[in-house]
Design brief:
The chain is mostly helical. It is built from five helices and three strands; from the N terminus they run ααβααββα. It has one domain (about 5-100): Arc Repressor Mutant, subunit A (Orthogonal Bundle), CATH 1.10.10.
């Protein structure tokens, strides 16, 4: 991929998510490529604190059904219910499809 491709990816993510931080963009990219990933695994991948990742995840989850941040959701793991996997909601899946067209 060339630089202009990454710029286009950033533009599309900003269109869908409003004004995301760099960490939000990084986290959504990780979830798009690793659905079911845990918050702890995301924390290790981005190299920041658990609290920072937790705040970012909450910002991408809806507070109501009409919320525009409806990108991801968390669901308990089928085997270890203490562990929450992070998954894409329909808006997140649409964003992933849109980005896939660039590749």
């Amino acid at each position: 991929m060339e630089l202009r491709d990454y710029e286009k990816i950033g533009q599309i993510i900003r269109e869908e998510m409003g004004n995301p931080t760099a960490l939000m963009m990084h986290v959504v990219w990780i979830v798009m490529n690793n659905e079911g990933i845990t918050q702890g695994e995301i924390t290790k991948m981005v190299g920041t604190s658990k609290a920072a990742v937790s705040r970012v995840l909450k910002k991408m989850m809806p507070e109501s059904s009409a919320d525009s941040r409806d990108i991801i959701y968390q669901e308990p793991d089928a085997i270890d219910t203490r562990s929450l996997g992070v998954y894409l909601r329909p808006k997140g899946k649409a964003l992933k499809k849109r980005l896939a067209l660039l590749q």
